[in-house]
Amino acid sequence: MAKEQTRRTLESLQFDNSYARLPQQWYQRTEPAPLKGARLAGFNAEVAQLIDLDPCSVTPEQLVCYFNGEKSLPGAEPLAMKYTGHQFGFYNPDLGDGRGLLLGEVVNHKGERWDLHLKGAGRTAFSRFGDGRAVLRSTIREYLAGEAMAGLGIPTTRALCLIASEHYTQRNGMEPCALLVRVTPCHIRFGHFEYFYYSRQHDQLKLLADYSIDRYYPQCREADNPYLALFLEVQERTAELVALWQSYDFVHGVLNTDNMSILGETFDYGPYTFMDWHEPDHIANKNDDQGRYAFKRQPEIVLWNLSAFAQALVPLVPQEALEQALTRFMGRFRYHELKRMRARLGLQQEDEGDAALVVELRRLAAANRLDLARFFYHLSEQPAEELLASELGLCESVPELSEWLKTYWRRLALEVASPPIREAQMRAVNPRYILRNYMAEEVIREAHAGNYAPLNDLLPLLREPAKVDPKLDRYAGMPPDWAGAICLTCSS
Ligand code: AMP
Ligand code: MG
Predict the structure, then answer these.
(1) What is the arithmetic mean of pLDDT over 267-284?
(2) How far is CA 356 from the centre of its chain?
(3) Is pTM beyond 0.90 here?
(4) What domain count does the chain have?
(5) pLDDT digits (tens, 9 = 90+) for 398-428
(6) For ligand 1, what atom is nearest to the CA of residue 256?
(7) Residue 83 is part of which domain span?
(8) CA dist list (Å): 63 to 68, 69, 103, 159, 355
(9) Is residue 447 part of a domain?
């Protein structure tokens, strides 16, 4: 029988910090350095439920006091994790939580273990020349992204709360700092494995693999080679994750191996973008001159990252077995991508021509700068072609779109589901709202003026992006002209 949810206060959260019990060379214990003039900017009652925290039992003052490190949170054992990783294709041995601290793990009434992590809590042993801080702009973007991804059903980290401050630091000029409390079951990155591999601590590497299996993939214990099974699980989740990104025109922006979670969640949000129109070459991060992390390259880059992860497992798994496993990635990615794209198109049956239908849609979307988010939303209503074109802001008819629609409608005739059922199914995967850069920009602008209401107002819309919100329905329309000029960089 399921246990009833326990409602806890901040002081009575059930911490059990398995990571803090691991050997010393894995981390450095560090206390958070409080921000000046800290105040609560956002609190996520949904995430509170995940850790059995009773949202009604907490006050803004308490959240600020404990998460801003003014008082120690009972049960927490803050530490900065050591990891390394490949950044833009080059190995960097000097990484680690430079501005993050793992507070500990909260175990809820279901036995689920959730990491609480502070982002922007001050300098650590791994800060190098950094200030250990995160700016309000980037923490808001991460907070919003977590809810938007969760709303789309894409695996992601989320945030429990956001704390703003009167602490300033140099980024794009002087900017206010903030602190995010990130919540996820997993803060282990591909780069954790790379650290032990490249520093030749192979006994610790094995311990990390065992820890990861016990905590995230216990089913791998039964396999002939549990470490190969671990790799295959991570690869499968990662293939599905990138398939979902590609299906929703999401560009992560900084797919370094230290930003890859072994749980297959979207992790470490920086200059990410949900594209306003379909652009395969889109580069979200203006510092990425070569376009290494351009939208269309994400699947191959993720495979590259998985190869780096596989390399780190060589002391534990025969190399040929890892190489063989990696050859399956693209097939798994395509499988997951076609599955989601079929769902978005309302196709339950499988037809040989479906992949080509998707390819052609993307091609014509790129050629005509179509916004696929609004395209799919309106396609769910099976509208007349003129109506669809006008919803998409097309001034003239696009012959290749007419052709595509004809093929699509012929294809729909093979379906058995009745139109109303299909429409409902399509609605579930084709949201009315998507988190666009300009929406985040508007929220950030207000937050810089001390007004956090727009931030908090946006969250319900992101969590339930299929539900019409009359107050915010302008977000269903075309982005404003200035949206195209938004420039995102790594600076955060
Ligand atoms: P990111 O670009 O946020 O994924 O961070 C890459 C690496 O730089 C990680 O090891 C971070 O901990 C570190 N880092 C990023 N920003 C800062 C900062 N402001 N202070 C210290 N370390 C940082
Ligand atoms: Mg990172």
Answers:
(1) 97
(2) 28
(3) yes
(4) 2
(5) 899 999 999 999 999 999 989 999 999 999 9
(6) 4
(7) 10-190
(8) 8, 10, 14, 13, 49
(9) no
